[in-house]
Amino acid sequence: MSVRRLDPVLIDRIAAGEVVERPASAVKELVENALDAGASRVEIVLENGGRSLIRVIDDGFGMSPEDLDLAVERHATSKIPDGDLFRIDTLGFRGEALPSIGAVARLAVATRREGAEHGSSILVDAGVKHPVKPAALARGTRIEVSDLFYAVPARLKFLKTDRAEAQAVGDLVKRIALAHPRVRFTLSGDSGTVFDYPAARGATEAEALAERIAQVLGRDFVENALAVDAQREEAALAGLAGLATDHRATAGAIHTYVNGRPVRDKLLLGAVKAAYADLLPSGRHPAVALYVTVPPRMVDVNVHPAKSEVRFRDPGLVRGLVVGALKSALGAAGHRAANTVGARTLDALRPSFAAPPRPAAPMNYDWRTSPAAPPAAAGPGFAEAAQAAFATVFAPQGDARAAAAAVDPALLDHPLGAARTQLHDTYIVAQTHDGIVIVDQHAAHERLVYERLKRERAERGIGRQMLLIPVVVDLDPVEAGRLLDRADLLASLGLVIEGFGPGAVAVSEVPAALAEADVPKLLRDLLDGLEEWGSALALEDRLDHVLATFACHHSVRAGRRLKPEEMNALLREMEATPFSGQCNHGRPTYVELKLADIERLFGRR
C-alpha cells in the first residue's frame, strides 16, 4: 500500500482525539481561552451534559475579523508571540482547540473587540469553514459547540450519562475557578450541575484566594486549614493545607496548581503525601489547595496533550519547597485538631430518630398504682439500703473527682484546659472555659514519645541501654532473616540484634526509652511493619516508621490509672508538641466539645 497525505479534515479529527475526549475537555479549552483573553466573567451553559450544546460567554478582549478567521485554523495562536516554547505565560497555546472542536461538531464563534463598530462571527461545521460575517455583540466572545461528535458518531458510545458528563464539567470548572478568584464563574444546564461563584472581593490576593476556596471547597475546609506561604530560590508556594485530622477517603481533595494552571502532577502529589506521611491513617488523603509559581523557563507545560501534567527543570527544588512548607505549617499548628472531629462526635451522640411521644397520663393518675412504685416497706422514699447499693454499683471511675477540689483558674486558660477526671482508666476529661476536652491517653502519649524520639535522633542520636541478659526471640527463619538484614538500620535507632541460631534473634541493647518494653512483641510488630513497607521507602521514612513502632510500645497504655498531676502534665506536653492532635496512626488524640453544642444536644438552646 502506497503512502499518501491525509485529508486536512481527517487530520483535524485525529487531533481532536487528543484534545477533545469528552464535553469537559472542550469546556476546558474554551474557558482557558477566555481567561487568557482577560475575562472577568465566564458563563458556561450545557444541554444534555454538553453533547447537544456547550456555550461559553466571556467579556474578554475579543478578536478582530482577521484574527477570528485565523483562530479556527490549525496551529494558529496569539499566545507565543516570540516563538519561544519555554516562555509560556498563558493557559492555552497549542493552537488546536478551536479547529479540533470544529472538526467533530458545529462550532459557532462570535466576537467583538472593544471600540469596534460591530462584532464578527464564523461557523465551522464538521471541519468545513464558512466565511466571517458581521454580528451584533457586546465586547467579548461567545462560542457555541452544537452536536458534539456528530461527525464521528463512534465516540458518542464512549460518553457517560448526561449527568455524569455535566458533573465532570462542573468538577473541571471548579478546579479552574480555584486558581482565578477575581473572575466570576457561572455554570447552568439541564443535568443538575449548577453554581455561581462571584468574583472575590478580598483586599489582598491571599484574602481573595481564601474567599474563593471557601466558595468552592466550603467554609469547613477554610476553618480547618493552615495558611502556606514559602519561597525557595525562584519558586514560590502559597495556599491552604488541611489539618491532618480533616482527612478524606480519596485524593480528590488535593488541588495543585502551577502558574495558575490546574495540574495532577505526580511530583506534586508525591510531595503532598510525603509531608503528611506519618500523620494520616492508612488509605486516607489530605485536603489541600496549593499554588506553585515559578518562572516560565523553569517549567515545561507542553508534555501532555490535555496540559494536566508539567515537567520542572529542577524537580528537587519544587519537591523540597512543597514538603518543607507543608511540614512547617503543620508543625506550627501544634496540637490543633480539626473542628470536624467534635462535630462528628456530636452527630454520633444525637439520636438518629425521634422518640415516640409518651401517652398522656389520665387526670386521676396515682403514682402509687404504678408497677415501678417502690415497695410499701420503703415508706415515702427509697430505703437506705437501696441507696447504698446504688452508690456502690454505679460509682464513677476516675482519680480526680469534680467535687474533690476547686479548679485552678490558671489551668482553664490553657487550650486543653484542666484535667477533671479519668474514665475507664483510658480517657482523660478536661474542662475549658467554654467546653470540655476528652483525650485518649494512649494515642496522645504515643505521639508525644514519637516526636521526642525524632528530636533525640536528629540532635544527638538515640541513647541505648544494654540488657543485663540478652532476650532471645524465636521467629520463623525467613522473618529472622528479614530482621537481620536491617540490623544496621535498627542499631542506628538503638536496637541491637544478632543471630542466635536458626530462626532466633538475640536482642542485647534497646533504646533507653524502651527499657521496660515487651521485646518479643516489639520485634514482631517491627516484622509486620517491614513486610508492609518493603524496600520502596527511603531511609528517612523507614527510620520514622521504626520510631513510630517504638513509641507505641513505650506510651502510656489504655487501662493505666493516672494521678491528676500526671493528667495535667500530659495535657501541657500535648500543647507544646507539634502534631499532637493525631496519633502516629492518624487517629485524633482528643475531641473538643463546646458548651453551647452540648447545651443544644440536651435541648437547653
Short key terms for the protein model shown above:
alpha+beta, elongated, 3 domains, 9-stranded mixed β-sheet, Ribosomal Protein S8, Chain: A, domain 1, 5-stranded mixed β-sheet, 36% helix, Ribosomal Protein S5, domain 2, 23 strands, 605 residues, Heat Shock Protein 90, single chain
The CATH superfamily of the largest domain bears the name MutL, C-terminal domain, regulatory subdomain
The counted number of beta strands is 23
- Spans of 5+ residues with little confidence (pLDDT < 50)? 377-400, 535-539
In what range is the share of β-strand residues? 15-25%
Count of the separate structural domains: 3
Could you estimate the helical fraction of the residues in percent? 25-40%
Describe this structure in words.
The chain has 605 residues and is of the alpha+beta class. It folds into three domains: 8-197, Histidine kinase-like ATPase, C-terminal domain (Heat Shock Protein 90, 2-Layer Sandwich); 205-333, 2-Layer Sandwich (Ribosomal Protein S5, domain 2); 388-605, MutL, C-terminal domain, regulatory subdomain (Ribosomal Protein S8, Chain: A, domain 1, 2-Layer Sandwich), CATH 3.30.1370.100. The chain has 19 helices and 23 strands. Strands 1, 2, 3, 4, 5, 6, 7, 8 and 9 form a nine-stranded mixed β-sheet that branches. Strands 10-11-14-12-13 form a five-stranded mixed β-sheet, sandwiched between helices. A four-stranded antiparallel β-sheet has the order 17-18-19-23. Strand 4 and strand 5 form a beta hairpin. Helix 13 (441-459) packs across helix 18 (564-576). The longest helix has 19 residues, at 441-459. The protein is elongated and about 95 Å long. Mean pLDDT is 80; it is low at 377-400 and 535-539.
